[in-house]
Design goal:
The complex is a heterodimer of chains A (about 1100) and B (about 375). Chain A has about 1100 residues and is α/β, with parallel strands linked by helices. Chain A has 37 helices and 38 strands. Classes of the chains: A alpha/beta (about 1100), B alpha/beta (about 375).
């Protein structure tokens, strides 16, 4: 019985903005699902507020709604589109929660729309701790002793029965948000208090500690005929205690006997049945006591998850795609396995390689945050590597992280063991290197196991890597066999060179002298049993290669590696579009990337996929293999962010053609003197500036140009190390802070700019083909200059710029494009102060805003840019219809307004004493993702963007204002309006007096720092939920303490906060809009139709 | 490091390192794709005469223990792995795998490109091979000659090598539900445990037992086990099975037992190109229209292309109860007119998924119904 005949249209709910715990893996899953449903002739309706996703491209659905994922909005979409069914299992916890909310509002019943993939009972059974516990016991597995509490009294009572340490888990939160280990009552009160608040049902589970047990995950799929398969088993290198998203994980499970593994499989199948996941995927997490094999089920997710994306990439079994097919009625045996094409999907993949995933963290962005790894996920991305052995896969994965110190190293001077052993007793991102260093320094493997509980086999693998390192270091001469043996264990040329005290180039030359190159194997789901049709490859040092280069014209596209703050899904978006564009014109595309979450690493995306680290050595070896026949046109490095760009110079030196803007010109954009010449040639201004390689030089520059200055290391993304510095003392403090990160040296000077107060910041994305400029879009930032463009909200079209100003921006962009000899994409940032236009920086590469511009204006910038990079002209693309006749500087009246809003992860990061880190915005980017609001006018679009980012503006309630003196004049009008609208206004004494003098009645509240014992301060009021909106701008050092307390409490209470007055002013119209009733919705496809009408 | 060589009859030679015992061994080279359960594989008598390639690269991580052995010795003729584990890590481990191999005199080879080797076998089919290690090795040409001179799997009867030397009885666990005569063609311990665990008293007979001996024990049902060899070369057992079927008592066969049932019913068997060996194989339960993920270990299969057919040997209607979804191979037979059925795959698993344990219940039910 194939596809159901009663489903003709399906609403797919996306996962919204990228946040920690819910990243672009859901774009990968959702994109697959939309593709499958469309291929099956089903009308696809999609809602997702995240414009940076591939899935929200209008091609992937029949009606694409970039709208907030709230029950009200989804109901409006249902009313408009009348889908037969809703598929909520591919958009993470966000989509599941939305589905549950729709059910509870009665929307499903009202519009007679069915949930497919998972039903309400299954969602509830998987998420409700008590119900789930009963299911687990019924399946014959154990659960940790536990009980549920709904308030603090119950928490304390239950604690008496369970004993410390214990785990606290809030219900219905994603990525383990709010959970943690409590070692005593003080810990418990803090964690459970936050957990009760984080749980939408005010419910926390307290359970017995299973710290140090082995942790496993199984990924399952089940169809309507009860056929169930285990797609993949995953073993955590880090034992229980570290969230699986923050653990190093290995597929398949390595340290289980068949009996133990089959027991986990039996339990899983029983659970998926009892939970009632009728069609689709589910993920079950286990803890296994290493001393006696006792099994405890930790949790299950009745949906596609981060782990299922990993499992899909690890095995070649496309879980999301199959889940979508199962949801519309197919059974597993009716679906062919894409990779073999002859065998069905009703099997369990067998691997003949090892997959290692390592998380990437961003603690450097949150210096105050506690870097201890716990059951709350904190990593922002991950890299995956495939190798024929664990040691090979592990070393490849570590170097894929592209982070200083992430690869193992073998210093000559061995470090004191005691210190390392002490450090590794706490799980942090450095633990694996501490383990390796301790072993190198002479620690016993058994000691490491006792302290960390890492399985002895994993520890032994690190011992093995160290042994190979020592052996290789001490060899008299390096011959072919010796070098091959080291390469088999995953050592890079750079690591080997280090061991032999020679250069990487020398080591590579020795290796090439022996003609020792990696072979490429294939991920085939079946350990070689059947021929693979899909070219999904990884490297290994072995005897035979499976890859033969084609005779076609080909282009290598470098992906962007693991997600990190500043380099996320936006770059993958551009890479994927370039791939599509080149495939369309018959060029063979070869993708190299190591991020398992992405669409680019789907074996369906490029003609050939190499899952490899993005290091020069690894990339050059792929290119070497592919260049054996056919015509390699070159490599695209402009799209994969700093990762890909960073390889440009090395590739060029190796004689590889770089497509598009040349590496020299990319460098010229960063090199102050040369860039200034280009600006001078067009009479363009930049803020007064200079460069420095140390503190004294920086101080001299600052003296010359005057404080405040904006300092910025060169060649970084996401504003790493970027700050506004107000005086000399702060400048030396800045150098102290960045010292350990080695951001600044003679080759990478610090850029020091005069900071422009109260300027409007403007961002431009454009394409240049060597002759003609195409402006993609001119975006106006809502926050003033000084807030990183990635963290600031912006609007397109601009709302305060005149056509004359836009024309000046376009003309300046043209000068820069010409000056830098851009071929492809160019992003320029400007500041407009007192109608004077300053150029802040120019980057001849794909920017973070390319997808936003493409969605807002219905153009496909990345596709067009890829074509330009392989020789097309803008005129040709316009003639083909791939670019509109008028570019982004000419937008007709009536063009809808799109607002991009950043989503920030402050709630994920607690300080060592358990409070949230400060939520102030600054020049260093800290947001993980973005949402877009689109509507006919700015206030509505802005209101949608706020709702989409999870900080919906309240229609009534209490607003607290406390601003710096310099902001007080601008505060007056917006607060007056809020007062008129009926919001209750609270203010600290000084602000309240000022408002009173202007006739605005504001209630005075007590500052946190001035509250006497027993008095209720503003911080208490925020914590107690008595405040609905907070406006707080930072001021002098004294008030900074109060400001921090206010902002941290607001973050904890999950209320909207405005930290600049500009934001508040922009929002005033939106406060009015939200009171007028629910949002109306419109798909991108309708906007596109209207755009055509506007232009004709 | 001591060198070892894997020599294939087509002249391909892989250079590797000594693993397990040292010396020379010959056999049919096959690959198995299971990622867990190497100990069960090694101790499965069906692998007698075969040099087994593990496609999973790391072998030996969880060591070995008494409980997980499927028989009391390691049966493989030789063992080919990529990377043997240096330590054993599991709370149940009693002995490192390497030690078990050396004790059993099992000659292995490690550190070779097992994936390339597997693809080679997949495209050219199972073939004879030899592992050579130790001192005084013959040269490459001589090694190849030795391999080429070794016996072929086709036409070989191996039951006598793996069967019990004398009959023995295993008591039923719990309430006695019946008595079963088991023909040991290379039986696995798990199979016996499944039967006994269902209240069946088991009398195990050597493979060369006569029909009269078995009939004389007056069991309530008959069971033929898995085992190595070419079913075509086991005419005696086929003949005996015909006599047993004629009694009208329930019959259940697994793997080799399935092939013998096929032949007893009058169908042909044939050799597969490279066989099915793994624990991830989808099998369609034709009647239920459901999929079972099953453990396989077979190089031969019953030939029956239609959904059902009349038994040429006169046992009535026979239908294909299970088919492999990967390649449509017959994976189970069910007689409609006599209480006999069999499966080509391994419902006892070990190693492998437990999806098909129900077949033992089915056998029990048949015994209870005819008793």
């Amino acid at each position: 019985m194939p596809k159901r005949a009663d489903i003709n249209s399906v609403l797919v709910i996306g996962s919204g903005p990228i946040v920690i715990g819910q990243a672009c893996e859901f774009d990968y899953s959702g994109t697959q699902a939309c593709r499958v449903l469309q291929e099956e002739g089903i009308r696809v309706i999609l809602v997702n507020s995240n414009p940076a996703t591939i899935m929200t491209d209008p091609d992937f659905a029949d009606a694409t709604f970039i709208e907030p994922i709230t029950p009200e909005v989804i109901e409006a979409i249902i009313e408009k589109e009348r889908p037969d069914a809703i598929l909520p299992t591919l958009g993470g916890q966000t989509a599941l929660n939305a589905a549950m909310a729709l059910y509870e509002r009665g929307s499903l019943e009202k519009y007679n729309v069915e949930l497919i993939g998972a039903n309400v009972d299954a969602i509830r059974a998987g998420e409700d701790r008590l119900e789930f516990k009963e299911l687990v016991l019924k399946a014959g597995a154990g659960v940790a002793n536990s009980a549920v509490a709904h308030n603090m009294e119950e928490v304390i009572e239950i604690a008496g029965q369970i004993g410390y340490p214990m785990v606290v888990r809030p219900s219905f939160t994603m990525g383990g948000l709010g959970s943690g280990f409590a070692y005593d009552e003080k810990d418990l009160r803090r964690i459970a208090g936050a957990g009760l608040q984080a749980s939408p049902t005010t419910e926390v589970l307290l359970e017995e500690s299973i710290l140090g047990w082995k942790e496993y995950e199984l990924e399952l799929m089940r169809d309507k005929n009860d056929n169930t398969v285990v797609v993949c088993s995953i073993e955590n290198f880090d034992p229980v205690g570290v969230h699986t998203g923050d653990s190093i994980t290995v597929a398949p499970a390595m340290t289980l006997t068949d009996r133990e593994y089959q027991n986990l499989r039996d339990i899983s199948i029983q659970i998926i049945r009892d939970v009632g996941v009728d069609t689709g995927g589910c993920n079950i997490q286990f803890a296994v006591d290493p001393t006696d094999g006792r099994v405890i089920v930790i949790e299950m997710n009745p949906r596609v998850s981060r782990s299922s994306a990993l499992a899909s990439k690890a095995t070649g079994f496309p879980i999301a795609k199959i889940a979508a097919k199962l949801a519309i009625g197919y059974t597993l045996d009716e679906i062919p396995n894409d990779i073999t094409s002859v065998t069905p999907a009703s099997f369990e993949p067998s691997l003949d390689y090892i997959v290692v995933k390592v998380p990437r963290f961003a603690f450097e962005k949150f210096p105050a945050a506690d870097p201890t790894l716990t059951t709350t996920m904190k990593s922002v991305g991950e890299a995956m590597a495939i190798g024929r052995t664990f040691s090979q896969a592990l070393q490849k994965a570590l170097r894929s992280l592209e982070k200083r110190g992430s690869s193992f190293s073998w210093p000559n001077v061995k470090l004191p063991v005691d210190r390392l052993l002490e450090q590794m007793s706490t799980a942090t991102e450095s633990r694996i290197s501490q383990v390796q260093q301790a072993l190198w320094s002479g620690a016993e493997a058994s000691t490491i196991h006792e302290i960390t509980k890492i399985d002895p086999w994993f520890v032994d693998q690190i011992v093995l890597i160290n042994e190979i390192a020592e052996w290789f270091r001490d060899l008299e001469t390096v011959g072919l066999d010796e070098l091959k043996r080291a390469k088999e264990h995953g050592f890079s040329d750079a690591q080997l060179a280090d061991l032999r005290q020679t250069s990487e180039a020398e080591m590579t030359a020795i290796r090439h002298g022996f003609n020792l190159r990696p072979v490429f194997k294939t991920v085939d789901t079946c350990a070689g049993e059947f021929p693979a049709e899909t070219p999904y490859h990884y490297s290994s040092y072995e005897q035979f290669t499976e890859v033969t280069a084609s005779d076609r014209k080909k282009v290598v596209i470098l992906g962007s590696g693991p997600n990190r703050i500043g380099q996320g899904v936006e770059f993958d978006y551009s890479c994927v579009h370039a791939t599509f564009a080149l495939r369309e014109i018959g060029i063979e595309t070869i993708m190299i990337n190591c991020n398992p979450e992405t669409v680019s690493t789907d074996y369906d995306t490029a003609d050939r996929l190499y899952f490899e680290p993005l290091t020069l050595e690894d990339v050059l070896e792929v290119i070497h293999a592919e260049a054996q026949s056919g015509e390699l046109l070159g490599v695209l490095v402009q799209l994969g962010g700093q990762t890909a760009l960073g390889l440009a110079e090395g590739l060029q030196k190796a004689g590889i053609t770089i497509l598009g803007t040349s590496p020299e010109n990319i460098d010229r954009a960063e090199e102050r003197g040369q860039f200034q010449q280009i600006l001078d040639s067009g009479n363009l201004l930049a803020p007064a500036n200079g460069i420095a390689t140390n503190l004294s030089e920086a101080a001299a520059v600052a003296d010359r140009i005057g404080f405040p200055v904006l300092v910025r290391p060169s060649f970084v993304l996401g504003g790493r190390g970027m700050e506004i510095v107000y005086d000399q003392d702060s400048l030396s403090g800045y150098f102290d802070r960045i010292a350990e990160h080695a951001l600044v040296d003679a080759k990478h000077p610090l850029l020091v700019d005069r900071f422009l107060d109260d300027a409007i910041e403007i961002d431009v994305d454009a394409i240049y083909d060597g002759h003609e400029l195409f402006i993609g879009g001119v975006m106006e930032h809502i926050e003033e200059a000084g807030i990183h463009s990635g963290d600031s909200s912006c609007t397109l079209p601009p709302i305060t710029l005149s056509q004359n100003q836009i024309n000046r921006v376009a003309a300046a962009t043209d000068v820069i494009a010409k000056g830098l000899n851009v071929i492809g994409l160019l992003n320029v940032q400007f500041a407009l102060a007192s109608d004077v236009l300053y150029v802040l920086e120019a980057n001849p590469r794909a920017s973070r805003t390319v997808p936003f511009v493409s969605k807002a204006l219905g153009t496909t910038l990345a596709k067009a840019a890829a074509r330009v990079m392989v020789g097309a002209t803008i005129a040709e693309l316009v003639a083909e219809g791939n670019l509109p006749h008028q570019d982004g500087r000419h937008l007709p009246p009536g063009t809808p307004i799109s607002v991009k809003e950043a989503v920030l992860p402050f709630k994920r990061f607690a300080t060592a004493d358990g409070r949230f880190v400060d939520s102030l915005l600054g020049p260093e980017m800290r947001s993980t993702g973005e949402v877009m609001g689109i509507d006919k006018d700015f206030p509505t679009a802005f209101a949608k963007s706020q709702a989409g980012s999870g900080s919906a503006l309240p229609t009534s309630g209490t607003v607290f204002v406390s601003v710096a003196d310099r902001d007080k004049p601008q505060l007056l009008l917006p607060v007056r309006r809020l007062d008129q609208l009926g919001y209750r206004i609270l203010a600290t004494e000084g602000t309240a007096q000022m408002l009173a003098r202007h006739g605005i009645k504001a209630e005075s509240v007590i500052k946190h720092s001035e509250a006497k014992s027993g008095e209720v301060s503003i911080v208490d009021m925020i914590t107690n939920g008595q405040v609905d909106v907070v406006v707080n701008t930072p001021s002098g050092a004294d008030a900074r303490v109060d400001g921090y307390e206010i902002r941290a409490a607001t973050t904890a209470a999950d209320k909207p906060i405005f930290t600049t007055v500009a934001q508040l002013c922009a929002a005033i119209g939106s406060f009015e809009v939200v009171r007028e009733g629910p949002f109306s919705v419109k798909p991108l496809q309708e906007y596109a139709q209207e755009r055509i009408e506007l232009l004709t | 490091m001591n060198k070892a060589y894997l020599v294939l009859e087509d002249g391909t030679i892989f250079d590797g390192q000594c693993y397990g015992a040292t010396g020379q061994t010959l056999g049919e080279l096959v690959f198995t794709t299971g990622m867990t359960g190497y100990q069960e594989t090694l101790t499965d008598p069906s692998y007698s005469g075969q040099i087994v390639i593990q496609t999973f690269p790391h072998i030996g991580i969880v060591g070995t223990n008494q409980t997980d052995s499927e028989s009391d010795k390691v049966w493989v003729a030789g063992y080919v792995v990529k990377e043997p584990s240096r330590i054993s890590s599991n709370y149940r481990s009693e002995k490192p795998l390497t030690e078990l191999l050396i004790e059993g005199g099992i000659i292995g080879i490690s550190n070779i490109d097992t994936r390339a080797l597997t693809l080679h076998i997949r495209s050219l089919g199972s073939m004879r091979a030899g592992i050579f290690s130790g001192s005084d090795l013959p040269d490459r040409a001589a090694m190849l000659e030795i391999v080429k001179a070794s016996s072929q799997m086709t036409g070989q009867s191996l039951s006598s090598k793996v069967t019990t030397s004398a009959r023995y009885t295993i008591p039923a666990t719990g309430t006695l539900n019946g008595r079963v005569a088991v023909l040991d063609l290379g039986i696995k311990r798990s199979t016996l445990e499944h039967l006994a665990g269902r209240g069946l008293e088991i009398e195990v007979f050597p493979a060369d037992s006569s029909a009269d001996t078995i009939l004389a024990s007056q069991p309530d049902g008959y069971f033929f086990s898995n085992g190595p060899g070419d079913p075509e070369a086991s005419g005696n057992q086929v003949q005996m099975l015909k006599e047993l079927l004629a009694t009208g008592k329930p019959f259940f066969g697994i793997c080799f037992g399935n092939q013998l049932l096929g032949r007893a019913l009058g169908f042909e068997t044939y050799k597969l190109k490279f066989g099915h060996r793994g624990i991830n194989q989808p099998v369609l339960n034709v009647a239920q229209k459901t999929v079972e993920v099953t453990a396989h270990n077979h190089g031969f299969a019953v030939k029956l292309e239609s959904e059902s057919a009349e038994s040429p040997a006169g046992f009535g209607r026979v239908r294909v109860s299970h088919r492999g979804l990967n390649d449509n191979v017959v994976e189970g037979l069910e007689c409609e007119d006599i209480p006999a059925f069999s499966v080509q795959y391994h419902p006892e698993a070990a190693a492998g998924p437990h999806d098909s344990h129900y077949l033992f219940d089915k056998f029990l039910k048949a015994i209870q119904e005819t008793k």
